[in-house]
Amino acid sequence: MSVAFEIHDGIALALVDRPPVNAIDAAVRAGLADAVRRATGDSTIRALVIACRGRTFMSGADLAELGGVIPPPAYADVLAALENCPKPVIAALHGTALGGGLEVAMACHYRCATTSARMGMPEITLGILPGAGGTQRLPRLVGTLHALDMLVSGAPIDATRAKGLGLLDELTGEDPVSGGLDYARRLVNSGAPPRPTCALTSRATPIDADAIAGVLERNTRSLKGRTTQDALIRAVNAATQPNFAAGLRIEATLSAESLHTPESLALRHVFFAERECGRVPGLAPSTGTKEFGKVAVVGAGTMGTGIAMALADSGIAVTLVERDTSALDRGLQQIRANYDNSVQRGRIDAATAAERVNRIQGTLDLESTRNADLAIEAVFEDLELKRSVLARLDGALPEHAVLASNTSSLPLGVLAEATRRPESVIGLHFFSPANVMRLLEIVRGARTSNDTILAALALAKKLRKVGVVVGDGFGFVGNRMMLDGYFRESELMLLQGVPPARIDAVMEAFGFAMGPNRVNDMAGIDVGTRVRAELLRRAARPAPYHVVSDAMTGLGRLGQKSGRGIYRYESGDRTPHPDAEIEPLIRQLAIRHGIVPREVTDLEIERRCVLSLVNIGAAILAEGLAYRASDIDVIWTSGYGFPRWRGGPMWYADSIGLKNVVEQIRELADSGGGPWWNTSRLLLELAASGRSFADWDRERGGT
Ligand code: T1G
Ligand code: NAD
Prior knowledge:
The protein is globular and about 90 Å long. It is built from 30 helices and 17 strands. Helix content is about 50%, strand content about 10%.
């Protein structure tokens, strides 16, 4: 039973219990409606409390229900019953009260919450509009401007702020049920009447265009390429009119429409894909896997420092190992500076920063890591150096410990052979900056055990990253698609005379936060050169293969960090400026590689960059280097800036139809695209059989 009904001294309690996050489905709605009926019908009952078991109050509508016709009872009827109940109805929140869950709470007459509770309306992150009165009741409780801010950002707020805004009436101790019952009792004893939110119109006043523009401005980054906000503004404007029922109707229409937009379908795909990628086909979900309480990180450079911070941020004790004092001091100083920066930006407070810094202990003595449960090496990208570091860690660490490499290109199998425990060796490929980027490519070697893979997935969850398991191939998944596809085509177009700024503009218009040339400059052009040098030892690639970047590395044009790359940068400023020197350099290289300048349209730029990802992604699936097409979508949306509202390269291909994709690839091949445009076998097969990548995933037990 999803909703239990109890009576405590004249106070009724409707206790929702639908693990893991009390997502609202028909049974929950029916249980709430039944609770109102019983509380109303029983004269001994003075008030009704709505609370939840488990780790959180209702975290929203069950997204699985949103795909089809939402079964009865309707949200509107259940929430109207709560709002029109003749006895005070109190919502007692804890955990994350989100979307439809917060809408249920706003339809109640009073709201209390544990101090650790967080609440918000994240629907926009799924490309949908609230559909249970949230756009009409929230402005009535917190005022139109704050409501619009919460709805457009989709970001949760903490309980203290919610009380300050008027969304909450009371903060309670950490037990929501007793806190709720106690608060209800005090309301009853004070004679508090029912207080329907729909009648609280004083704060839902119209806001002017400048205020709306201000909200959009504050959310520019997350709204790039999005449209949901337009409908949201219309719904919130309807809330400033006194006719509540009319506002609800407008919201219902806009919300229903939003469910079917390509943007929303793509965003919901990514939501579930990020949960699905944590499962390994054929392996039971990770229960009782190895816990990593103490972790050693070897190498305190760009990656080692970020990895150490990610671990410390999630409460893990870190031993940071370097080869000499100056490198260690530099690394620890970098970490302190990063935390100071977060304090100045108000992301964390000084006490938390100090706590995290203290969790990271530096040492030059690798053997002192002997009590670690996991060691992650992030030393230079050099095969023999990494093998020697892993061999020493193998000798120092306890038998149960896992050894991991942050390599971005070296064969994990070869690294594992340097140890006596290849089954406990895994690749943990973080992305720079490692304490910020959400993606973690988990590289399984041929001998890596399932236990080790499951432990790595559990670690990813603990670090609040999306862990995606990939095979031990050339550039794993993300880098292979970037180097063999997207960035290689971008470079080839430079050689064909297309200005870098035009390529970047087209890809930024497509939805990437940054175009390929700006990303290259930001990441460091030499990093790519070093990675390719190692990769090309594994497998050759037909020329020209990133000759522009490698030439720039040779000239010391390393990107932002050297003030010159594809673009020129003023010191201390990340704004890219065209650099007159780059065109002649590229011209020379084009002549050397026999590349003739030609007209390239914006559409061709977009197709070459995006379809190269799709074609190689399909090859990767056929080779078994990724379990699901949706995993590739997670890799590209959480690690390489592919727009989430386009769902990732594989979902995007499905959205335009694989037959069309094959046709467009054929056109590119015919226009001199070369061997890279041989359509991968799986893509041809799926297109010919009228199937999609999503079908391919489903055929393999995916959702
Ligand atoms: N519906 C269905 N399943 C859900 C779900 C939901 N709303 N939220 C989570 N799950 C599943 C998830 O797939 C996973 O399943 C498990 O719960 C644990 O989630 C009417 C229309 C709540 C902060 O957008 O943000 O209300 O993989 O791994 O990291 O206007 O889940 O174990 O099988 O993410 O602790 C609005 C979405 C819906 C919140 C917990 N609500 N959820 O994070 O666990 S739209 C949301 C989250 C709406 C109304 C509209 C997070 C979380 P599995 P998890 P977590
Ligand atoms: P880096 O040059 O910034 O840091 C490497 C650090 O390793 C240096 O501080 C060096 O002193 C230290 N080191 C070298 N030998 C050592 C030893 N024997 N013992 C202890 N410390 C030692 O390099 P980075 O960019 O942090 O890259 C590290 C690894 O991460 C490489 O394998 C790289 O391919 C991979 N990687 C880099 C990125 C990136 O964007 N930079 C992204 C993903 C993965």
